[in-house]
Each structure stands twice: as C-alpha cells, then as structure tokens.
Amino acid sequence: MSSYPQTRLRRTRSTSWSRAMHREVLVTPADLIWPLFVTEGQGVEDPIASLPGVSRWSVDGIVARAKEAVALGVPCLALFPNTQPDRRSEDGREALNPDNLMCRAIRAIKDACGDDIGVLTDVALDPYTSHGQDGLIDAAGYVLNDATVEVLVGQSLNQAAAGADIIAPSDMMDGRIAAIRDALEGHSHHNVQIMSYAAKYASAFYGPFRDAVGSRGLLKGDKKTYQMDPGNAEEALREVEMDLAEGADSVMVKPGLPYLDIAIRVKQTFGVPVFAYQVSGEYAMIEAAVAAGAADRDAMVLETLVAFKRAGCSGVLTYHAAHAARLLGA
Ligand SMILES: NCC(=O)CCC(=O)O
Ligand SMILES: [Mg+2]
C-alpha cells in the first residue's frame, strides 16, 4: 500500500552481511602510524602517567615495537625522543648530533626491519631546547623564523642520513618545507618524503605529549605566535597550499577529531594525501572515559578511526595504533 515508503534506508542495514557490503569506508592496519617515545638506557620501559598504556622505550624496546608493528601490518612509526635534561640547550643543538637518541633509534629500526616499515621523524626543536619552544628564541622569548629554519634543515639532514624515510616538520615556521626539500635534494635524498604538519593548531590537547618528551615543565608561555589559531579554517588552506608548492609529499592536520572539518576541506580542495594526528589529549580523553566506566574502548577507538577515513584522510597517527591493528586483524 502506498502509505509505506518505497525507499527504506533501513533495508540495507538490516543484516550484518549487508551492512558490511554497503560500508563506504574501512579502516585497515595500513591506515595507522604509530607514534613512539624513545628514552635512554637498555631494557627500559617507562610508563607515562598522563598517557595510560603508553610508555617511553629504550632503543632495544623501540626495535621490538617496530617488529610488532610489522607483524600487525602497521606501515609506519613516528619517533619522538625524551632528551635528557643535560643534553637540552637554549639552541637545541642536540638535534644536530648524528648520535642523538633519535638517530640511534632510526638506525636500530632500519638495521632490524629495513624497508618492512617506514620511519617518520619529527622535525622541531622542542625535544631539545631548554625552554621547550620549537625553535630559537630572542631575548623576549619570540621564536625566530629564519634562524630556526636553518637549524631545522640541519636536523632534517641529520635524520635522513640516519635512515629516516619521512621527514615530518612540526614546527610551523614559514618557508621550512622549501628549505628542507632543497637540502634533501642537494644531499641526494631524493626519495626521502616530507609529510608537513601543515595545519597544526595551538591546541590544549598536547599536554600529555609534553610530559612524554619532558618539555611540559620547561615550556614558558605558549606557541600561539607560530601554531594556528583554532578559529581559522581558510588560513589552513593557505598553509597547505604553500607547503605543497614548496615540495611537501603529504600534509597533516593536527589535532585530529576537533579538526575533521579541516581535514575534509584540505582533501576536497587539493586532492593530496592528508593525514591526521589524533593527539595525546584525544587519546587521554578516551582512556579517561574508559577508566570512568563511561565508554567501551575498542568500539570508541575504531569509531574515531573510521571518522578520519570518512573525512578523507589517508591515515592517522594514533597512540592506539597497535591496539587498533590487533582489533582489526582479529
Ligand atoms: N609534534 C608532535 C606533537 O606535538 C604531538 C602532540 C600530541 O600528541 O599531543
Ligand atoms: Mg606553514
């Protein structure tokens, strides 16, 4: 009888096989990039209180995580060093040391896993500076753009020489992608990619990360003179456009879930590979909800990841990567 709808969208939802058949986007382990924190020592696993379930690992433990990632089908790791306080300085020069923690971790992973896994390395000075800012500062504490870019170029070459596959500048200085691309080409690192943290916002969601790399207590002030204002979206498109013109292979939006509108706009405007960083505060929110008995971790993690895919992302940096890959592989 015509009082009933001809079109019933519930029809295709009525069974599990049909839902599977009509699903528009899927998450697979290949969509995940696993951020890992490296610390000094041997056999060290150092849990991070504000990121329950996440630890800093010494280089041997990082290699074990890399092998775990390969087995799980996770294609790439993102490395962050917890630099010892006595190796931090005003100018962050430890970033240029070919034997720094980061370079030792890159070499160890590449020795153990070769091209079975990609290594993405963060370029910015905050893990190396005594003031916790991402660049060099003047007497007033202002982060200097061009002087910082020069150091970032050296940091990038240092990481590429150690075997990094993807250089990921997270500093938000202007012009650094062109400078780094030029230097990589000049040193025959033609196939070293650049994933630019193109639209990185000055966010309240980074707190646990600063604990993890040991910069929270050091940081005075904020990063609002270089990271983006959360109210801006048009500006994110300009940031992305510039970084692509300067030679970025892919771009990142960060944080993740609160900025999905930016991810989809970048994808629809430029059609390039877009990645999102589900940052430490987002991870901590999920874990806090689970600890409070308010959420089902597995369902929530997978739902957030599919949201990134729906928003056009090629992949997601997430501290839940190994857990999610296990769920997806099961
Ligand atoms: N450059 C990397 C980060 O700042 C990560 C932030 C986070 O996970 O909170
Ligand atoms: Mg920029």
TrEMBL record:
Gene Ontology annotations of biological process type: protoporphyrinogen IX biosynthetic process
Pfam families: ALAD
Pathway, per record: Porphyrin-containing compound metabolism; protoporphyrin-IX biosynthesis; coproporphyrinogen-III from 5-aminolevulinate: step 1/4
Chain positions recorded as Mg(2+) binding sites: E239
One CC-aspect GO term: cytosol
Residues annotated as catalytic: K200, K254
Top-rank lineage group of the source organism: Bacteria
Keyword check for Cell membrane: no
SUPFAM superfamilies (UniProt xref): Aldolase
Record-linked InterPro entries: ALAD, ALAD_AS, Aldolase_TIM
Record keywords: Heme biosynthesis, Lyase, Magnesium, Metal-binding, Porphyrin biosynthesis
CDD domains registered for this protein in UniProt: ALAD_PBGS_aspartate_rich (cd04823)
Catalytic activity: 2 5-aminolevulinate = porphobilinogen + 2 H2O + H(+)
MF (Gene Ontology): porphobilinogen synthase activity; zinc ion binding
EC number, as in UniProt: 4.2.1.24
Quaternary state and interactors: Homooctamer.
Stored NCBIfam families: PRK09283.1
Family: Belongs to the ALAD family.
Protein name: Delta-aminolevulinic acid dehydratase
Species annotation: Novosphingobium hassiacum
